[in-house]
Amino acid sequence: MQTDIPPATLPASAANRLRRLLEGDRVVRLMGAHNALGAKMAERAGFDGVWSSGLELSASYGVPDASLVTMSEHLVTLQAMCYCLSVPILADCDSGYGDECNVAFMVRKFEAAGVAGVTIEDKCYPKRNSFVEGPQDLAPVDQFVAKILSARAARRHADFVIVARTEALIAGESVDEALRRAHAYADAGADAILFHSKARTFGQIAETLQLWQNRLPVVLVPTTYPEVGLDELQRLGVRIVIYANQGLRSSLRSVERTYAEILRSGSTHSVEPFLWPLQKVFALLDSGHPQFGHQPEPQPPPPASLPPRLPPVAAAEVCDQLLAAGIDFCAGVPDSTMTQLFLELERRAELEYLPAVSEEGAIGVAVGAYLGGRSPAILMQNSGLGTAVTALASLVRPYGIPLLLLVGWRGVDGDDAPEHQILGENTLDLLRLLGIPFEIFDPTQPGRGITNLLGLARRTSSPAALVVRQGALK
Ligand code: SPV
Ligand code: MG
User: Which of 48, 65, 122, 335 is catalytic?
Assistant: First the structure.
């Protein structure tokens, strides 16, 4: 039977892709991950591939990086990663999960799962993480050579990459010993050598590389010498750089802060601005999944065009509304957008107004007033919002002060001095970034924004901003 279906072309295998990267002429960047989600994030960010880090994997089980997580558990993780990734994975296989028989079994399993290559290190089983205090037991060279030979014999395709990692420098041995081992591993047929070091500077590795003369491609993990840049690595001919655990450490830090803030504030409101929207999570999960295809991630909406300016409202009316909402104290730095309001405040005996020389100072005074039982509002220009970032982020937000901000919005309506333009364009984003809810002041309903925002500020124990355009007050 004749068909006109073209022959299927299989994409290059992961091993082939890693092999080609290894043979290319630029440093290949791998990012550590311990599950498919982290691996997807690495791919999405643009890394060339993924390092299935033993430390991260152990951490995901909540246990030390000490050969406790089994080969099969690693395999399950790798299968999940391979299912949804296009970039290749280099698996961190510790010391090979046993002797050379275990290495052969592992290579077969990992290669079949779609992994591009393995790294095996010359330490005794069980291994301990390279950076923990205490002794590090190196395996005899011939024992490790047997593992390399076994890995080579077990792989089904010659593209499958075998990286031999020497821990000689980690174990306190000399550069000469590291090189002696590396040469033995090269003789045994390793495809690349990983020289691991826990030195705080690049000097030890630089010396090693100079003497190694790129006999085989070099892989580095610059965890303890993080200042070494890509240019330097490129200059020295390094082929792969592994950022082994920065993903784990950054999520731990972020999670720690988020959890503490939820417990402190009694709600999730204040952390919302720092979280991915669920739609973005869904799009990440859909991407690369055959059933769902690639959903483009939602992009932030383009800046909404501003509605036309409305006729101004009398500043006296705004003062009345502030009083009606319970505001009894104002502090601020004069701003031409709200000149009439500042003048009105100075006339009102029942609404105490304290001019300040800086927005931070005004916030400090207002917080003091609040703690003394007053109900304060702050008036400032949007340029002052920049000055006040520290006070807002370090004082008002963490201490849960329900502060109403009236922010004059210069630089947005196109007819202002050029020095106001950048902050004008970014005022709303700056408020979003600080997690401060806002409304744009509507002169036709002067009480609405004040009541809404003050209510919100009091309910959520956080600041809220009313953004006032030029020409809104008279
Ligand atoms: C890992 O990420 O597990 C590694 C690198 O092997 S290190 O933690 O530096 O040993
Ligand atoms: Mg490891």
Answer: 65
Closest atom of ligand 1 to 92 CA is 6
The torsion angles phi and psi of 464, rounded to 5 degrees, stand at: -145, 145
Residue owning the nearest CA to atom 7 of ligand 1: 130
Ligand 1 site-directed mutation target among 55, 57, 95, 132, most atoms within 8 Å of CB: 55
Q: What is the pLDDT of residues 248-301, one digit of tens each?
A: 999 999 999 999 999 999 999 888 888 899 989 998 998 877 667 555 555 555
Tokens of 117: 């290559």
65 is catalytic: yes
CA angle 9, 118, 179 (to 5 degrees): 130
How many Å lie between the centroid of ligand 2 and the Cα of residue 449?
A: 55
Ligand 1: residues whose CB is within 6 Å? 32, 53-55, 65, 92, 129-131, 221, 223, 244-245
- Whole-number mean pLDDT of the chain? 91
Sign of CA dihedral 76, 21, 141, 56: negative
Return the beta strands (E) in 277-427 as ranges.
Answer: 329-332, 352-355, 376-381, 404-409
pTM of the model: 0.68
Q: Is 144 exposed, middle or buried (0-12, 13-18, 19+ CB in 10 A)?
A: buried
Ranges of H-type helices in 23-169: 36-45, 54-60, 71-84, 100-113, 141-154
Q: In this structure, are residues 345 and 319 in contact, taking their beta carbons and an 8 Å threshold?
A: yes
User: 55-58 long-range contacts, Cβ below 8 Å, gap at least 24?
Assistant: 55/92, 55/129, 55/244, 55/245, 55/248, 56/32, 56/244, 56/245, 56/247, 56/248, 57/92, 58/129
Give 312-345 pLDDT, tens digit per residue.
999 999 999 999 999 999 999 988 899 999 999 9
Name residue 195's beta-bridge partners.
166
How much distance in Å is there from the Cα of 224 to the middle of ligand 2? 14
- What lies within 8 Å, CB to CB, of 94 at 6+ separation is 54, 67, 120, 121, 123, 125, 127
Q: Which residue has the tokens 């070494």?
A: 228
Q: How far apart are CA 210 and CA 207, in angstroms?
A: 5
Q: E strand or H helix at 242, and its extent?
A: strand 240-243
**pLDDT single digits (tens) 3-47:** 454 444 455 799 999 999 999 999 999 999 999 999 999 999 999
Sheet with 376-381: list strands edge to edge: 352-355, 329-332, 376-381, 404-409, 464-469, 438-440
At 192 the three-state DSSP class reads strand
d(CA 52, CA 91): 5
Closest CA to 163 of 11, 26, 30: 30
Nearest alpha carbon to residue 316 among 294, 343, 344: 344
Contact indicator for 404, 324 with CB cutoff of 8 Å: no
Q: For ligand 1, what atom is nearest to the CA of residue 198?
A: 9
